[in-house]
Amino acid sequence: MKRKKSLLAFLMIASLLQPATTWAAEVDLLDKYPVKTPLFTQGLELDPTGKELILGTGLEGKSQLGKFNLQSGELEDAQNLPNNYFGEGITFTPNALWQLTWKEKKVLKRDPKTFEILDEIDINTEGWGICYDPDEKVIWRSDGTSTLYKHDPETFELLGQVKIMNGKLAASKLNELEWANGHIYANRLYRDEILKIDLASESVVETYDVRPMLDQTLNEEEIASVDTLNGIAHIEGDEFYITGKLYPYIYKVRLK
């Protein structure tokens, strides 16, 4: 009996010492919108009016930026990137729409209304995800590691960087980013989860497991054909649009 009590006490103490990552954060499905032709989604963002859902795609020779129509399931008014560019994450700032490229290590500065390319700026690493922080008035960018880079929203000058921790481990493979409710929400490459990041502590404070929702809404053929979860657009409060590469749906969810 003493041995059992000692073991129980050990397990209780060990549980208290575990990393503070929360795996039970809820993902509530509110709606889903079919995608007529699955897209290699790399960036998802509502425009400043909150009326247009902007979507950027990847792959060399196929990368586009356009407006996704939730009713028709089609990407409309799409603009092609140069054939040698692999499109990545997108974000709006007060005066521009920014679109990353992958191994080309360039970011495209676009007119926020016409999407015309105004400038191309070199960056020091690959481009993966990007979001605008209206509180600090800076851009945050990921490159597939645990590091987030801070940039000036007008010139894209590099202002600093932080390493994000998930408990005692680095939060690796950070991908698409979205700023909402004072936090960064991040996809991770090849993980069916969304991380909620607190920049003040440079750490993950919630982990949202999206796999149960995918299992409920996708058949076996669809599960076999989709790529990684990739695309987060904040609507309001705790509501978001999320999707992924070659996903047959864009989901409207509540992240509690």
Automatic annotation (TrEMBL):
Residues 1-24 form the signal peptide. Pfam families: Glu_cyclase_2. One of its GO terms (molecular function) is glutaminyl-peptide cyclotransferase activity. SUPFAM superfamilies: YVTN repeat-like/Quinoprotein amine dehydrogenase. It comes from the Bacteria. Keywords: Signal. This is Glutaminyl-peptide cyclotransferase. The lineage of its organism: Bacteria, Bacillati, Bacillota, Bacilli, Lactobacillales.
